């Protein structure tokens, strides 16, 4: 990786992390407030409309976002073509979704779905107008600007408008308006920064390279959408909006923190991988490094969430959401695998190995669809177990793909999970002991949850920094180098860093 690319990647990780932490704190507060102001049915209705909008977005987008980032040589005519196509498709799908909304209501047997989907159809138009600007910012790895735009948009739309509207009894519409407002503010901010050419492109030639890659990416994204949203579709169809609201909030409680942990990496990794897509050895090394670090954080965090699920639900959502606890405990284990496996998919995207990814996703859909059917009698927990087993199967399938694409042995790929699994077991055990002690003493829920969070954080920090697995030592050395902490100075900090690197990390 060149110094310039490494510098941009490091800067992207730094600013992305700032945005991630800020958004995580705000989303926890927002989620907690809205869960107390709105009923589960409201979240169920929004989940249904979200599935429909995401369904259409994979065709309205046509993979142009990643096509702009992935293309090695991007000329002005390609930018005009991308904007013309995305804006036109956005307008078309807004119109089609508005007209077809009653069919969605019939499918879910809920007439309240129609007006919500019709208003949410505006998301296609807003997204179509902003895709090009956001993609150009990601391509140039200007993550500082993206982070600022995202934080401002989130505060104004969700924290201010969303909560105020919910307090004023706007019900489900407070969620809808906040979502559309956030998209609008982000779109305006991105275009103000980039100011790309908005003249329409009528020549066909510039569209060919974009749609050659983008159309396959769009199809893959659609397949991934089906695999991810089977639970939402089936629960909404069979069990109704109330049960779907319970499942959706449980999914959110683990998906949100894991998404926040990984979103910074994924934003930076895809353009970075794309720029070195032809250097298999270097790409393989960075892939293993990224997964080792990510697994060491994600797996312990998810296992900790599983143990602390009863307190987490009561603190964040409230007493009335107790039914989501067992669902959250199973989903937390499943989604840890999902977020780690995601990086193998990014490698396929960067190297344009898309046909294999299409086959893999079709197989995964068949596997998880069968599991949903077999476990349907167990209700929401059965759906959650189907997701867990499906993610295990997908992880094994991607091992085969990475073996062929990056020439990585299976032992290399399995080894990268070891530090995370070991730390996860120890973190979960520590949180369980603290939880059992405080629960038996009838300690206040807030105190128990605070003790769980503190125990998990301290154990993870100690295990990762003071007793790092041998596979993590080299990665920690690399992080210290990137941060400029080489321990060569005379300051107290430099001496501490030198002592730490020479003792704890000496075997790296």
Q: Could you describe the 3D structure shown?
A:
It is found in: Cell membrane. Pfam families: Polysacc_synt_3. This protein has a domain at 38-216. 83% of the residues lie in helices and 0% in strands. It has 20 helices and no strands. It has helices at residues 3-37, 40-61, 64-70, 76-108, 113-120, 122-139, 143-167, 172-194, 207-238, 241-275, 280-307, 309-316, 325-350, 354-374, 379-405, 410-415, 418-440, 445-465, 470-482, 492-503. Helix 3 (64-70) packs parallel to helix 6, helix 3 crosses helix 9 and helix 6 (122-139) runs parallel beside helix 8 (172-194). The relative contact order is 0.10. The model has no long low-confidence stretch (mean pLDDT 78).
Per-chain topology:
Blueprint: H1 3-37, H2 40-61, H3 64-70, H4 76-108, H5 113-120, H6 122-139, H7 143-167, H8 172-194, H9 207-238, H10 241-275, H11 280-307, H12 309-316, H13 325-350, H14 354-374, H15 379-405, H16 410-415, H17 418-440, H18 445-465, H19 470-482, H20 492-503
Helix pairs in contact: 1-7, 1-10, 2-4, 2-5, 2-6, 2-9, 2-10, 3-6, 3-9, 4-5, 4-6, 4-9, 6-8, 7-8, 9-10, 9-14, 10-11, 10-13, 11-13, 11-17, 11-18, 12-18, 13-15, 14-15, 17-18
| Total of DSSP H or I helical runs spanning 4+ residues | 20
Q: Any low-confidence stretches, pLDDT <50, length ≥5?
A: none
What shape does the CA trace take?
A: globular
* Secondary-structure element string: HHHHHHHHHHHHHHHHHHHH
Q: Which structural category fits the helices and strands?
A: mainly alpha
Average per-residue pLDDT, rounded, comes to 78
Instruction: Kindly state the percentage of residues in helix.
Output: over 70%
Per DSSP, what share of the residues sits in E-state strands of 2 or more residues? under 5%
How far apart the termini lie comes to: 20 Å
Using only C-alpha atoms, the radius of gyration works out to 23 Å
* Strand elements, count: 0
The main sheet comes to: none
Family: Belongs to the polysaccharide synthase family.
Keywords: Cell membrane, Membrane, Transmembrane, Transmembrane helix
Membrane topology: Multi-pass membrane protein
Main location: membrane
């Amino acid at each position: 990786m060149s110094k310039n690319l490494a510098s941009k990647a490091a800067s992207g990780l730094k600013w992305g992390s700032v945005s991630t932490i800020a958004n995580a704190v705000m989303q926890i507060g927002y989620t907690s407030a809205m869960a107390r102001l709105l009923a589960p049915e409201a979240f169920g209705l929004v989940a249904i409309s979200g599935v429909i909008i995401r369904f259409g977005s994979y065709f309205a987008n046509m993979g142009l976002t990643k096509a702009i980032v992935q293309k090695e040589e991007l000329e002005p005519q390609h930018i005009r073509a991308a904007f013309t196509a995305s804006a036109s498709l956005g307008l078309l799908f807004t119109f089609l979704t508005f007209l077809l909304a009653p069919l969605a209501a019939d499918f879910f047997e809920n007439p309240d779905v129609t007006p919500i989907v019709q208003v949410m159809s505006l998301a296609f138009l807003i997204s179509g107008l902003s895709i090009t600007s956001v993609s150009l910012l990601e391509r140039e790895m200007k993550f500082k600007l993206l982070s600022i735009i995202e934080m401002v948009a989130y505060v104004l739309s969700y924290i201010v408008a969303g909560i105020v509207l919910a307090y004023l009894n706007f019900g489900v519409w407070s969620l809808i308006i906040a979502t559309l407002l956030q998209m609008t503010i982000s779109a305006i901010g991105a275009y103000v920064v980039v100011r790309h050419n908005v003249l329409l492109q009528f020549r066909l030639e510039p569209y060919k390279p974009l749609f050659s890659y983008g159309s396959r990416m769009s199809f893959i994204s659609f397949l991934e959408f089906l695999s991810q949203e089977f639970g939402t579709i089936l629960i909404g169809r069979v069990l109704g909006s109330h049960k779907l609201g319970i499942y959706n909030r449980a999914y959110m409680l683990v998906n949100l923190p894991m998404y926040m942990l990984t979103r910074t990496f994924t934003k930076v990794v895809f353009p970075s991988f794309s720029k070195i897509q032809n250097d298999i050895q270097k790409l393989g090394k960075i892939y293993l490094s990224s997964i080792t670090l990510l697994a060491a954080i994600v797996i312990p965090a998810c296992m900790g969430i599983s143990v602390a699920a009863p307190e987490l639900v009561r603190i964040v959502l409230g007493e009335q959401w107790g039914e989501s606890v067992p669902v959250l405990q199973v989903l937390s284990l499943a989604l840890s695998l999902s977020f780690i496996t995601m990086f193998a998919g990014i490698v396929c995207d960067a190297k344009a190995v898309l046909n294999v990814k299409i086959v893999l996703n079709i197989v995964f859909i068949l596997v998880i669809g069968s599991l949903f059917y077999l476990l349907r009698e167990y209700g929401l927990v059965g759906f959650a177990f189907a997701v867990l087993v499906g993610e295990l199967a997908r992880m094994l399938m991607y091992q085969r793909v990475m073996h062929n694409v990056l020439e990585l042995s299976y032992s290399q790929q399995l080894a990268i999970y070891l530090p995370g699994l070991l730390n996860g077991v120890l973190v979960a055990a520590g949180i369980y002991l603290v939880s059992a002690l405080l629960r038996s003493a009838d300690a206040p829920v807030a105190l128990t949850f605070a003790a769980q969070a503190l125990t998990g954080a301290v154990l993870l920090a100690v295990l990762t920094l003071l007793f790092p697995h041998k596979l993590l030592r080299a990665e920690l050395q690399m992080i210290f180098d990137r941060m400029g902490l080489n321990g060569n100075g005379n300051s107290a900090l430099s001496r501490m860093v030198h002592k730490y690197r020479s003792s704890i990390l000496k075997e790296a």
